[in-house]
Amino acid sequence: MKDKLKLGLFGYGIVGQGLHDVLNSNNGLRAEIVKICVKDKSKKRRIPMDYFTYDKNDLLNDPKINLIVELIDDADEAYSIVTTAMKHGKDVVTANKKMVAEHLQELVELQEETQTSFLYEASTCGSIPIIRNLEEYYDNELLYSVRGIFNGSSNFILSKMFNDGNEYADVLKEAQELGFAETDPSLDVDGIDAKYKLVIITLHAYGLFIDPDAVFTLGISKISKYDINYAREKGFKIKLVPTVTKLNDTDIGMFVLPRFISSGKYLYNVDYEYNGVVAEAAFSDKQFFYGKGAGGHPTGSAVLSDISACTYDYKYEYKKKNQHSVRRYSTDMLVEIYLRYYQKYDIEDIKFQSVSEYYYGNNHNYLIGVINLKDLISIQEKLKTRDIFIVNTGRKFD
Questions:
Q1: Where are the domains of the chain?
Q2: Is residue 223 scored above 90 in pLDDT?
Q3: What is the average pLDDT across 291-299?
Q4: Which CATH number, 3.40.50.2000, 3.40.50.1970, 1.10.3720.10, 3.40.50.720, labels domain 5-131+296-323?
Q5: What does 151-185 look like in DSSP terms, one character per residue?
Q6: pLDDT tens-digit readout, 171-199
Q7: Are strands 251-262 and 216-217 parallel, antiparallel or unpaired?
Q8: Which CATH class is domain 136-291+326-392?
Q9: Catalytic residue among 56, 160, 195, 197
Q10: Is residue 286 flagged as an active site residue?
Q11: Is-contact 366 321, C-beta < 8 A?
């Protein structure tokens, strides 16, 4: 156990300031911020400027600092900071899901090589401690699936459209004004942020390293009032739900798609910037985790939990990886989808195995049918250019 943690903090934005608040309100944690590295020299700060530096080496080369907390937006720079810190024997806590997901296997191996702690609870679902639960509570549990609402920005947009009847463009603008969505919102609304989080969760749930580019991902940017109206008429809400599921004894499947959620399901009432995770297991059945998925204090609390864990040298053990029970990520799985479209040529190369419902209207068309995920993956880039919207109905197939 460490006597005291001396923190070098990278980034002092919303999460960095939130962490500072929750750290200052905690009297039991033996940790203090020694130095904070930021980029903007002209920005006014709410704490004395003596805390700040603009040279990352002031933190990475300081022998007094034994824990690096990385909270910046730039994934490439974050990777450089994190790898350098571990090579210098410093523990690392990060919230950068893109950096973690794209370099996960390398970073895990570097942690083992350097015997440092590399923790990233805040990279997945804000204040929800899903990684620690997968590591500790479900370490020997047979998981059937893990799914949920992992992105607060897209959930805010979908909630406002459904509850208030507003158009997508208007709600997106509101989300940007409130700070829930960036000026370029594609990371959130196209499902990319959720995909990174799914890749991280999959390692802890099933023990496999997955290339994010291999995961079928379609977001909510093409949603229309027709899709919202269909969901409302059928008693559903539409949520963006990343899903990883066990297909058989050795294989898992995964994807990021909007999903119809009925009123009796856990995720139905997860609205606005909140996140929710459903873990379905053989013995503990379904369990539901709920909490704020964004914001300085909720995410800061997750970072604080990792900092606290570093006081007793906690490391992820990756128990599912070491069990080798799941061996392969497969895209050969059946999914039932709702597909709304306008032009017939937009669906001509989509290979449905069966279709159970058609609708042809003056303003839009839709169909519901079963398709193999690998066939969707083969045309994924084409689908992104078309004015169509796809929703997973949630029905299961053997």
A1: 5-131+296-323, 136-291+326-392
A2: yes
A3: 85
A4: 3.40.50.720
A5: -HHHHHHHHHHHHH---HHHHHHHHHHHTSS-SST
A6: 999 988 877 777 789 999 999 999 999 99
A7: parallel
A8: alpha beta
A9: 197
A10: no
A11: no
